[in-house]
Design a protein that fits this description.
heterodimer; A: Sufe protein. Chain: A; four-stranded mixed sheet; 5 helices; 40% helix; 19% strand; B: alpha/beta; Aspartate Aminotransferase, domain 1; Aspartate Aminotransferase, domain 2; four-stranded antiparallel sheet
Chain lengths: 160, 412
């Protein structure tokens, strides 16, 4: 196997291709407290995230719809699987760990990330970091928001 | 079997003129199929630009010293070279700009700002690049003009039978692309200009994708304005052209103010030069203009008719090879098209495919290609795009098809 194919196979690990083809927690959440629309205007990827909180502000239920590349869809699917039932602090910590995982060269992929560690191949493809982070930007906004609707973008806020 | 086109041009020898084609990407020889975004530059152009900076560099139109005279002469000779290249009647009809986008903004803001009124109609098409859409949206928003669009058929051609109902007396300008940067569609420019003229509408042709790829003569096309960039036709980035007839340009007020475009200035007011200098405020991209003239020399040495035949041959060869790739669907016309092929694949999203191809040294474009409304029209978030130029080869297309087959297996 040559090195280049190695990078590709590390980026598109089986667990990622599986989640992109059969995304988990994909669908509507009728009693959601927050809905966040995440856009990547550079490539047209969209994630619509719906979140319901429990009494302590943790994530009781989290679902998504949308479309995009394998990386953004798998990231959303893996993320929702991991974050369901987590407390606010745990979600925030996971967000930081995941960001490090996909951006930092010397990161040993903490065990607590579980299947999300499969996303570590993204770090060798800087142009794809936004794809991986899109659903996480949406969940970050959902925590800030706690109710209502919002739109987040991987680009800077626009002047309209 | 696909017939091998006969040509007097030695296309594979010509690749030696482009130093960048020797690059290796991710361990593979570069296959550069993103020429619709920007073309590569031949050594002849690189040498002229370097020579300018080493032997002629000075500001134009103002120094009395020898270098300034040399730079001015070379800059103005380049303007004449452009005029000859597009069949303009005079070098005064050639305004140097930063590129197609700036050329169109100049027309929208300076010409449109003077001549358009609330309620007037700006006619565009559904296949315009954002550069021939957003400037008109800005103008329409400012003055209360309306935008209308010629629809695009499923086969990627313009719905011309709708033209008579769209092209009414309210239309003050019809601005459209010559060749679609996403679909490769070649529009019937002369016919469209003639129809616009018959209702008294002005025309602007976006020639960004056609200028370096096929013979083009503004008097034969019958357009009022024509806009193009140097960088898609082997010239450096940052230089482009707005063509306008002398009378038309003379009716347009100044746009950017500054040095070089004035005749006299007091603290209260200024008077302005005649076109084209009226529209070239500040120090222009002198090296860029000189590089553009060198690119014209280079392309004319090969012949634009030959280049067009080469493009068309590569496009039809590629369409044939791509037809056998599982789940691959090509957008745009099946024939009479330029060397731009947009496609979607069932197995892989355009961004995944672009990343995959890049690992094999194949440069494709993935995304909306500055054509978001057109992508919506076809119900896709984006496409992958392969675009060819004079240095592209059938052998590279074979390798692309092989990489696409690999992608189908990888992502299945």
């Amino acid at each position: 196997m040559n090195l280049e194919l190695g990078d590709l196979e590390e980026l598109y690990q089986d667990v990622i291709l599986d989640h992109s083809r059969r995304p988990r927690n994909f669908g509507e959440l009728s009693d959601a407290a927050v809905r966040v629309h995440g856009d990547n205007p550079a490539c047209g990827d969209e994630i619509h995230l719906a979140v319901k909180f429990n009494g302590n502000g943790g994530l009781e239920e989290i679902k998504f719809t949308g479309h995009g590349c394998a990386i953004s869809q798998a990231s959303a699917s893996l993320m929702t699987t991991k974050l369901k039932g987590k407390s606010r602090d745990e979600v925030e910590e996971m967000l930081r760990s995941f960001h490090d995982l996909v951006t930092s060269e010397n990161n040993d992929a903490p065990k607590k990330l579980g299947d999300l560690r499969a996303m570590r191949g993204v770090r060798k493809f800087p142009q794809r970091v936004k794809c991986a982070m899109l659903p996480w930007r949406a969940v970050e906004q959902a925590l800030r928001q706690t109710e209502g609707e919002a739109t987040v973008s991987t680009e800077e806020p626009e002047f309209a | 079997m696909h017939k091998v086109a006969t040509s007097r041009v030695d296309w594979s020898a010509l690749r030696e003129d482009f130093p960048i084609l020797q690059e290796r990407v991710n361990g593979h020889p570069l296959i550069y199929f993103d020429s619709a975004a920007t073309s590569q530059k031949p050594r002849a152009v690189l040498d002229v630009v370097r020579n300018y900076y080493e032997h002629e560099n000075a500001n134009v139109h103002r120094g009395l010293h020898a270098l300034s005279a040399r730079a001015t002469e070379h800059y103005e000779k380049s303007r004449q070279r452009v005029a000859d290249f597009i069949g303009a009647a005079s070098a005064d009809e050639i305004v140097f700009t930063r590129g197609t986008t700036e050329s169109i903004n100049l027309v929208a803001q300076a010409w449109g700002g003077k001549f358009l009124r609330a309620g007037d109609v700006i006619l565009l098409t559904e296949m315009e690049h954002h550069s021939n859409l957003v400037p008109w949206q800005l103008l329409a928003g400012r003055i209360g003009a309306r935008l209308r669009f010629v629809p695009v058929r499923d086969d990627g051609t313009l719905e011309l039978e709708k033209l008579s109902s769209l092209l009414t007396a309210e239309v003050k300008i019809f601005a459209f692309t010559h060749v679609s940067n996403s679909l490769g569609t070649i529009n019937p420019v002369a016919e469209l200009c003639q129809k616009a003229r018959s209702v008294g509408a002005m025309t602007l042709v976006d020639a960004a994708q056609s200028i370096g790829h096929m013979p083009l003569n503004v008097q034969e096309l019958g357009c009022d304005f024509l806009a193009f960039s140097g960088h898609k036709m082997c010239a450096p980035t940052g230089v482009g052209v707005l063509y306008g007839g002398l009378d038309v340009l003379d009716s347009v007020p100044p746009w950017h103010g500054g040095g070089e475009m004035i005749t006299s200035v007091t603290l209260e007011k200024s008077t302005f030069k005649k076109p084209p200098h009226r529209f070239e405020a500040g120090t222009p991209n002198i090296a860029g203009a000189i590089g553009l003239a060198a690119a014209i020399d280079y392309l004319e040495g090969i012949g634009r008719a030959e280049i067009f035949k080469h493009d068309v041959d590569l496009a039809s060869y590629a369409l044939q090879g791509m037809a056998d790739v599982t789940g691959l669907h090509v957008l745009g016309p099946s024939r009479d098209r330029g060397g731009v092929i947009s496609f979607v694949m069932g197995a892989a999203h355009p961004h995944d495919l672009t990343t995959f191809a890049d690992q094999y040294g194949l440069a494709l474009r993935g995304g909306h290609h500055c054509n978001q409304p057109l992508m919506r029209r076809f119900g896709v978030p984006g496409t992958s795009r392969a675009s060819f130029y004079l240095y592209s080869t059938r052998e590279e297309i074979d390798r692309m098809v092989d990489i696409l087959d690999k992608a189908v297996r990888f992502f299945k």
